[in-house]
Amino acid sequence: MTKVLVTGGAGYIGSHTTKELLKQGFEVVVFDNLSSGNKEFVLGRGLIVGDLMDKAAVRNVFKSGDIAAVLHFASLIQVGESYVDPRKYYAQNLISSLNLLDVMLEAGVKSFIFSSSAAVYGTPRQIPIPEEHPLLPMNPYGQTKFFVEKILQDYDRAYGLKFISLRYFNAAGADPDGTLGEMHNPETHLIPNILLTIRGKKEYLEIYGTDFPTPDGTAIRDYIHVTDLAAAHVLALQRLLASSMSESINLGTNKGYSVREIIAKAEEITGKKVPTEQKTRREGDVPVLLASKEKAERLLGWKLRYSKIETIIDTAWKWHTKLN
Length: 324
Fold this sequence. Notes:
CATH architecture of the largest domain: 3-Layer(aba) Sandwich
Number of strands: 14
Helix content: 25-40%
Distance between the termini: 38 Å
Low-confidence stretches: none
Strand order of the largest sheet: 3-2-1-4-5-6-11
Structural class: alpha/beta
CATH class of the largest domain: Alpha Beta
Shape: globular
CATH superfamily of the largest domain: NAD(P)-binding Rossmann-like Domain
CATH topology of the largest domain: Rossmann fold
Strand content: 15-25%
Mean pLDDT: 94
Number of helices: 10
């Protein structure tokens, strides 16, 4: 049984990926400081509570000597906060990644799956965005993902550390089995905020920007079901372990929905109205972001199973109706 380390495995995408890894027969060790993750989301018995900023704690994880690969999800992810406190993002996201990579090299572990972001592209010059698109991130969060990708390229060239960097936007939905879901504090993602508003946990939904050059004036994004994303991470790991070829791969649907379209779909599925309040655009927001999926389909054999927008919202709503 191949043992892998999942950093941030108590978080949203990390926990869903851990579930998929276990289903595919991997032994999984989760390393998470639980600052934003949830202990109850960790399936299996392999949770180690620790912080990637503590290099000694990271070294302890590798002492068994039998970890074959690392999937790295742990990072700060709020674009708005990264504008307000860029130092926090550069320190946390970069130093933690460097600590992890350095300890991997010390331990002789040279297979790395990186949870990146289509934020590395900045304002798209073509839609859907291909992997060859220039990398011009517009916010500190995107810059940290960009810098880690550059570090990985140098570590590959100099030390033979092989990686697959997966770039995606807008993970959404919940585990179709109902075991796992999305729970951030604060919650910044659109679909859970819509559902929180429907449930009366928020007074209204903020719509940030109604003057984008899109058909209804609101931003268009690519929404991918979290279980499809998790499956892609497992496929990427299997490819990396078999081929030792470094790659950067987009994970997208080639289809986008505006904020107003998502609200309308949620109202249709739940049968409830969503009170809204219009706000000005957030700094760094672009009108349309769609990531191409052709390379992922070709190299990984990836197939979307749950990423119809109706399925995304329905699974998220079922998850939310289980919560208090």
